[in-house]
């Protein structure tokens, strides 16, 4: 085994962990989980890294003193079957070409180490947990520009295991996705997982089903899945659980199985993931429902599911993406992140995983892991944060999420037109309680297409009329009384006084004026 320093978790090799130890392992404090995609080994930043200290300085060492209690380190090298860890089962991604021109993996192999090992050692030295994160169907290799730099030999040598070919794009999803309906694919995936479990001193494994959420040939053809598909994926998860238990007994400590999935049971089943069955069978230890490319439902539903089966729930907050760079920038700003985090905390999550956030000195790492820290800080809440229109259409995945959505779809790239006299209701999920903490002042912003020169609509907050005033081109604003802002789902009713193209509804919280 590639080991670091002695584990921060006491262990008795050869003894099967007890149920009490399993519960203790499940419910350790994990305020923030940093999901590292492993690209710190090749990104062309200066200076070029040559030592362990330089590697860790990119994303890891600056996290000391933050709210991060666990790191989920991904070594999937933009494709399945090629990794940034030592392996005999699969391929080691040592190539230096195109997007990987500055790949430093081989240099660290010569030093007898690799990114996963260095991260494990850092976590052991600093009393943090570490998971190996596996992207279950990474299809970055399907990109026409940089994809050929990444694609694994396993896929090149076994095209029949893929959903399609480079010259024949499937109806849905990416051609390079593997077909989990084939036993050969599931066996290869299991072998990759089992090797890491046996060779690295990790605290467990994260199966990341969000990258990318298509797993079966039927999905790529636009056909509904069959029970045999769900059973096939469940059998793989059972094998992984059994391997973790086997290795955990050898080490004398419980090893964790984490899953990162869409935040809807129904949608997860539609793409082949029988999440509730996995929980009912005791296979899953940490549940990380993700906002991913889109969020489907409220965090409360995920929390209720976890509580039902005694599984801690970690809201996986992903970066927001939109064709409009200004929209993307605003939704990824710290004010938006604070609102998303406090909304999750108020719903009862056990912690938060941050996905695709790699600036270790960003204030988010010292704010988002504590509701107490977040409460007095400025925030912005939206009807929808993640899930641009093209993502909701589901063309890139096997199944569109639209039939399963329980959160509104209003975004600048998905505006809604209201006729004169028409009323529509929109929900805002808020985590703040200004009735108890009036240090912040709330303002509601109704944003419209400025080119449409819309008249100010009539707006109600939970049935209470608001007095709107102009707040810039196409924007109408109103103060919301502190007593009316509580941790809840609030209803904003918009009635058009003339034709209106509504683009966004935002609740901003800022320090109250003296």
Structural class: alpha/beta
Number of helices: 16
What is the CATH architecture term of the largest domain?
Alpha-Beta Barrel
- What level of helicity do the residues show? 25-40%
How much of the polypeptide forms β-strand, as a percent range? 15-25%
Low-confidence stretches: 3-8
Whole-number mean pLDDT: 95
CATH superfamily caption of the largest domain: Phosphoenolpyruvate-binding domains
Largest sheet properties: 8 strands, parallel
Cα Rg? 24 Å
How many structural domains in the coordinates? 2
Tell me what you see in this structure.
This protein is of the alpha/beta class. The protein has two domains: 19-378, Phosphoenolpyruvate-binding domains (TIM Barrel); 416-511, Jelly Rolls, CATH 2.60.120. It contains 16 helices and 20 strands. It has helices spanning 19-26, 52-59, 105-110, 115-125, 147-150, 153-157, 183-199, 217-220, 227-251, 265-270, 275-280, 299-309, 325-331, 334-347, 371-374, 389-392; strands at residues 32-36, 68-74, 82-83, 91-92, 129-135, 204-208, 256-262, 286-290, 314-318, 351-355, 379-382, 416-418, 423-430, 440-448, 458-461, 464-465, 469-470, 475-480, 488-495, 500-511. The strands form four sheets. An eight-stranded parallel sheet has the order 8-7-6-5-2-1-10-9. Strands 11, 12, 14, 17, 18 and 20 form a six-stranded antiparallel sheet that branches. β15 and β16 (464-465) form a beta hairpin. α7 runs parallel beside α9. The protein is globular and about 65 Å long. Mean pLDDT is 95; it is low at 3-8.
